[in-house]
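Internal tracking record. Fields below are filled automatically when a chain is submitted to the structure queue. Please do not edit lines marked as system-generated. If the sequence contains nonstandard residues, flag them in the REMARKS field before resubmitting.
Queue: standard
Priority: normal
Entity type: single polypeptide chain
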Amino acid sequence: ERLDESGYRDAGVRPQPAGRIPATLTHFARASARRLLPSQMEIDQALGEYLSEPKTLVSFSPPAAPLSERRFLVAAARRGLRLDAGTRLLYDRHGFYVNGETQRCASGSKTLREIADRRALAGQALQALRPGAESSRLLYDWYRAGWLHLPD
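SYSTEM-GENERATED OUTPUT FOLLOWS
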């Protein structure tokens, strides 16, 4: 069977969180890519990176004068965070995929899953973030890249 004749179809897939990669799509990609990539994890990572790649004309605007990590976390706990309209943040059991990049994060993954699913978080959900923590550092890096913003 040729790959183009066995295209992915998601009919009958139950609704799920917005940021979660559907298991049916993952299974289809694994079956299609087994000949190209040696491990299942590499297949899953390639799929996550591909699906999170921003559209062609998307550009990001980093803050002109970014806050320090500590000030950023204080502001996020007060004002919340929202993903940039062009940001694609997805996750699976291996990690997070943001704008075509793989990010592994063991600590704080619940917070990152929530922002992927909701595209924004209120300050209350961010009060546990601490400077230097893995998830705090990722969020700060994404803020500095213009991939997420502090709401006005």
